[in-house]
Each structure stands twice: as C-alpha cells, then as structure tokens.
Design goal:
By secondary structure, the protein is of the alpha+beta class. It is built from 13 helices and nine strands. It folds into two domains: 185 residues, no CATH class; 151 residues, no CATH class. About 22% of the residues have low confidence.
Length: 352
C-alpha cells in the first residue's frame, strides 16, 4: 500500500502493462510536412518500423540470466507490404505509400525491392523490404545532437495492440504486394534473401521526389537523375499524368471507384516494368512497347471512362487485370467515339 499514489485512477493505470510501439514526442516536430504540421501517419509507420528493428532480450530459461539480444525477424531487412500497413492502420494503400515515400525522403528509411520465393516456391517480384538508418533516426529523435536523456515518449491504446506481435515471425512470403495477389493480410514480418543490396540514400532525396511529382511518365527519358526511377516514382508520374488527385476528390465518397483507379495505376506501372515481349489486349497479343505508348496517351477523361465502364458493364469480370488493361489501351479510341456519339444524339434530340 505504501507504493500507491493516492489517486485511484492513476493506481489502476499503473497495473496495466503497456508495450509495443513508442512515439517520442519530438517526432511531432521533426517528422512534419512542409507546412510544419506533424505527418501523423508517417510518424505511426516509423514507430512500427522502429518496433520491428528494436531487438528483444534473450535470457536463460533456467536461471533468467541475460545472454544477449535477438531480432524480431529473420534476415537483414524488414519486409512489410503497403497493403499490410494499410490494413493495420485502417487507411488506404495510397496514403501508406505516400507516407513511406515521405519517410524515405527524410532519409530515415530506404526501400529495397527484391525477388523472393514463397513457401510454395512461387517466384514473387518487387517484394518491398524496408531498411532503417539508425543515425538519421537519432537525428530526428535528438535534434539538438545530444542523447544524454531519454526522449519523452507517448504510448496510446492504439499502439498497445502491437504487444500481440510474435517475436518468432513466420518466414514465408505471403504478404507480397503485387497486382495479382492483393488480398488483405495479417500483420506480420516476412523474411527474404539475406543479402543487403542498394546504395545509400542521397542526402537531398526530396528534390528527386518533387521532380517525379511534376513529371509525366511519357517524359521519363528527358530526366537526368542520379537514381534509376523505381516503381513508386513511375506510379507518381502516371498519377500526375492522369490527374489522379482530381478523380480522388471527385470520387471521395466512393471507395469502390478509388480501388479500381488504384488498380489501374498498379497495372500501368507493372506494364512499364514488364520484361515480357507482349501484353494481351482484348485477347490479342500486342508488343509491350506499343502498349506502353498507348498508356502514355491516357488523360483524366480516359481514366474516368475506364473506371465508369468497369461499373457499367453488366457481366461478371473474371480477369480484372486483363479487363482493365484492355480498357485503358482501347479507351484512347473508344472514349472519343463515345463522346462523338453522345454529341450526335444530343443534336438529334435538340432538333439540330
């Protein structure tokens, strides 16, 4: 009883064992947007990444003596898919992608895409792994450059959910983030190949990102960059080309249409990086370079037509990827014909 505070609520809270993600309060200043406001989703994702990289203690089961540390995942890099994080934080995949790209622009993380095999031996391309830069993390956590005292941390009830994470993580590659395998996934880490690839992140990553946001995919060859454009860069270019934000605002109340739009972006990016000689369009093989050129012609009007056509069709679509790709490629001609037909019908009805 001598250890009680005298405050009933505080004494009861003291009985709760909080664990899991920890957010230093200084991150609400150091991890902020251009307007100075904290980037809350980026902060939460960073805390999740740091959680996985924080080692756990190993103790002798008989004596309880400390014998060392171990990682929460196998291999050198943490594997997390955008979909995995989106499901966990109950936000859209697009929001997670933007937040992860922002963290990379700060230099605190680095994305590494690998080709790995899952439990069934199936080869999975472009599996996302995340590397953490401890030095940059220290700079964001101790902006003054002194680390003599532990930063004040906040632990919310939403963060306590990570206490249920299993330190002995599964070693399969089930949560691969690709177009054809897009089912909701449990929160877990997955190991990949043990090698560590890639160069250190450039100091001024934000310059590269801003260039990408203002560039159309058709203009890629005219850009002189130190980094080779990755999938996220091409995705940003394509979204800019088709006026993605305009449609996102227009369909803000329709999650289904936004999901289809996101699928179209993923498909276009996959075609850009495809190593296959042909793409199947409406059942016919077309050279991949020719399909890429058609995709580079897409505008906001074409994409609205594609998404609306998906919902207007009166039949069940079995191959959604094939249907959307064919619809995008054919919309260059079909959308114009439809507009001409509607204009003609309007003139007839108006007695023109």
């Amino acid at each position: 009883m001598g250890h009680m505070t005298g405050n009933k609520t505080a004494d009861r809270v003291a009985e709760i064992n909080f664990s899991g993600n920890v957010i230093p309060s200084v991150w609400f200043k150091s991890v902020s947007k251009e307007d100075g406001k904290p980037y809350l989703l980026a902060i939460m994702i960073l805390s999740e990444i740091v959680y996985w990289y924080r080692p756990t203690e190993m103790r002798d089961e008989r004596t309880g003596e400390f014998i060392g540390y171990k990682t929460k995942f196998r291999g050198e890099l943490l594997q997390k898919s955008y979909r995995d994080l989106a499901d966990y934080y109950q936000v859209s995949k697009r929001q997670v992608t933007d937040a992860v790209v922002f963290l990379e622009s700060l230099g605190v993380i680095r994305r590494v895409f690998k080709t790995v095999r899952d439990k069934k031996g199936i080869l999975c391309n472009n599996v996302l792994f995340i590397d953490l830069d401890p030095e940059r993390l220290k700079e964001l956590t101790y902006p003054s450059g002194t680390a003599d005292t532990e930063p004040e941390a906040q632990q919310g009830s939403s963060m306590a959910a990570s206490a249920g994470q299993d330190d002995g993580a599964d070693s399969s590659v089930d949560n691969v983030d690709n177009v054809d395998k897009n089912t909701p996934l449990p929160r877990k880490n997955v190991t990949g190949s043990p090698e560590k690839t890639g160069e250190a992140l450039p100091k001024k990553r934000e310059t590269y990102t801003e260039i990408i946001k203002k560039t159309n995919i058709a203009d890629l060859k005219s850009i002189s960059l130190t980094d080779e454009p990755d999938r996220e860069a091409i995705g940003l270019m394509f979204r800019n080309q088709i006026g993605y934000e305009h449609m996102a605002d227009m369909w803000s109340g329709s999650k289904e249409r936004l999901d289809v739009l996101d699928a179209c972006v993923e498909i276009a990016v996959s075609v850009y990086f495809s190593t296959g000689r042909f793409q199947k369009i409406s059942g016919e093989k077309r050279p991949t370079p020719a399909v890429r050129k058609r995709l580079q012609m897409l505008t906001n009007e074409h994409m609205q037509y594609v998404v609306n056509s998906f919902f207007d069709t009166g039949r069940k679509i079995r191959n959604i990827r094939g249907y959307l790709l064919s619809c995008m490629v054919n919309s260059i001609d079909t959308a114009g014909v439809k507009d001409a037909n509607e204009s003609a019908m309007a003139r007839i009805l108006n007695g023109g």
